[in-house]
Amino acid sequence: MEKSPPCDKCKAQCCRHLAVEIDKPTTKKEYDYIRWYLLHKNVSVFIDHNNDWFIKFNTDCEMIQEDNRCGCYENRPKICRDYPSKDECCEFEGEDDYFTYMFDTEGEFSDYMDSKKRDWKYKKTKS
Ligand code: SF4
Ligand code: SF4
Question: What does the pLDDT read at residue 32?
Fold first, then answer.
């Protein structure tokens, strides 16, 4: 049976941010850019289950009404019409399926990088 998202309960979470795909960082400079993004308020970075990287701006759409409904429903952008897709769950339904890592602060990202460096060192000593 097709699932329908619990929109009436979640207070329009999907209308309260936007996410844009970014290149996966591979150099020290690119990792440092991620740190810089995260030093800004209301900015997060996440890695989804396909290992794609996104920057997320945690900011409400101007069109959300007090009752959490869309103020331009008939004319809403296509990306809003298409979300969530038939095969995709929305973030409210299953955060664990939606992303692998979510970094809300520079500290969280630095911890992640430290753990990656430990893994890389460990793999190097094993090979
Ligand atoms: S995040 Fe999901 S449940 Fe919430 S409003 Fe958007 S589609 Fe509905
Ligand atoms: S246009 Fe409407 S559906 Fe789209 S993000 Fe804004 S409030 Fe949500």
Answer: 95
